[in-house]
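Exercise 7b. C-alpha cells:
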C-alpha cells in the first residue's frame, strides 16, 4: 500500500465524513421537528440516559474531561425537562420537579467530586421514568391507531 492509498484509508477509517455527519444532523433535525410532544420527551430521556451511561463509563476510566462533558449535557437536558414541566396541570408535577432538582444537584456533585456513585444513583432514579415515557408513548400510539378507520379495532370495523 502506497502513502496515498494509506492516507485515503486512514481518512476513511477515522470516522464519519463531513457529508455523513451533515446527513446525520439533518436527519436528527427532521426527527425533532416532526416529533409529537411525547416523542420529544422520549428523545430527551433517551439522550439523557445515553449521556449518563457515557459519563459513568468515563468516570470509571478516570477520563474526567469526557465525564464532565457528558454530565453537563445531562444537566442541560434535565433543565429542559424541568422548564417544560407544567406543575399546575398535574398533581405529581411538584414531585417530578423536586426529582429533577435533586438529580441535577447530584450531577453537579458527581462532576465536582468525580463521584460515579452519584451518577449511578441518578441513572437508577431516571431510568424508570424513561421506560414509563416510552410505555406512555406506545400506549398513545396504539390508542390513536385503534381509532383510525380501516385498522383492526378501528372505527367502522365490525
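Sequence design result:
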Amino acid at each position: 500500500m502506497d502513502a496515498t492509498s494509506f492516507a485515503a484509508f486512514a481518512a476513511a477509517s477515522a470516522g464519519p465524513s463531513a457529508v455523513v455527519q451533515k446527513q446525520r444532523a439533518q436527519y436528527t433535525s427532521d426527527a425533532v421537528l416532526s416529533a409529537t410532544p411525547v416523542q420529544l420527551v422520549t428523545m430527551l430521556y433517551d439522550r439523557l440516559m445515553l449521556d449518563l451511561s457515557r459519563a459513568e463509563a468515563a468516570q470509571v476510566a478516570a477520563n474526567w474531561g469526557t465525564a464532565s462533558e457528558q454530565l453537563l449535557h445531562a444537566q442541560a437536558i434535565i433543565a429542559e425537562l424541568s422548564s417544560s414541566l407544567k406543575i399546575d396541570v398535574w398533581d405529581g408535577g411538584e414531585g417530578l420537579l423536586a426529582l429533577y432538582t435533586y438529580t441535577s444537584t447530584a450531577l453537579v456533585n458527581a462532576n465536582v467530586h468525580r463521584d460515579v456513585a452519584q451518577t449511578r444513583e441518578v441513572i437508577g432514579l431516571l431510568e424508570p421514568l424513561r421506560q414509563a415515557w416510552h410505555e406512555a408513548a406506545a400506549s398513545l400510539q396504539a390508542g390513536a391507531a385503534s381509532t383510525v378507520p380501516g385498522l383492526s379495532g378501528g372505527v367502522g370495523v365490525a
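Instructor comment: Residues 136 and 142 are 10 Å apart (CA to CA). The two ends are 69 Å apart (CA to CA).
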